[in-house]
Amino acid sequence: MQFPVRIPFVDLLGFRLQRMDAGEAEITFDAQPEHLNSFDVVHGGASMTLLDVVMAHAARSVEPSMGAVTIEMKTSFMRPGKGALRATGRLLHRTATMAFTEGSVFDASGKLCIHATGTFKFVPRLPTSPTSTQPLNRIATD
């Protein structure tokens, strides 16, 4: 499945969108050596990016014409992320302008590694040409 909007950093990390529908999203990530920390486990920054992206996509799944920018995120690391990871995101509640979400990262054996909650602001896509608003290049965040 294609990501609905190109995010260069997501491309660089190699995330793969598996599902985005009805307030839920799922993304897989096969961590490469360059994504590891000095303990040879997935770097916390890569894991937090995975959670940020999966929660934003869960939010956007109910409002695909809008972008979603992160307002806040709380992350709990329970065990190291190793190998192939699967992230799930779920929309818990939304208002006209905000989305409240949760996300989890599981290792290849299905063990929960990381959990997060996040708040996102829905923002309009800006036109990129007179006939297109598809790419989300620049957005107003205020």
Spell out the blueprint of helices and strands.
Elements: H1 8-13, E1 16-21, E2 24-30, H2 44-60, E3 66-77, E4 84-94, E5 98-106, E6 112-124
Antiparallel strand pairs: 1-2, 2-4, 3-6, 4-5, 5-6
Quick rundown:
By secondary structure, the chain is an alpha+beta fold. It is built from two helices and six strands, in the order αββαββββ. It has a six-stranded antiparallel sheet with strand order 1-2-4-5-6-3, covered by helices on one side.
Number of helices: 2
From the alpha carbons, calculate the radius of gyration and give it in angstroms: 15 Å
Structural class: alpha+beta
Which percent range describes the beta-strand content? 35-45%
Overall spatial form:
globular
Counting DSSP E segments of at least 2 residues, the number of strands comes to 6
List the uncertain runs: 132-137
Helix content: 10-25%
Mean pLDDT: 91
Structure description:
This protein has a six-stranded antiparallel beta sheet, covered by helices on one side. The longest helix has 17 residues. The radius of gyration is 15 Å and the shape is globular. Strand 5 and strand 6 form a beta hairpin. About 4% of the residues have low confidence. With 142 residues, it is α+β, with helices and mostly antiparallel strands. It is built from two helices and six strands; from the N terminus they run H-E-E-H-E-E-E-E.
Keywords, separated by commas or semicolons:
142 residues; globular; six-stranded antiparallel beta sheet; alpha+beta; 2 helices
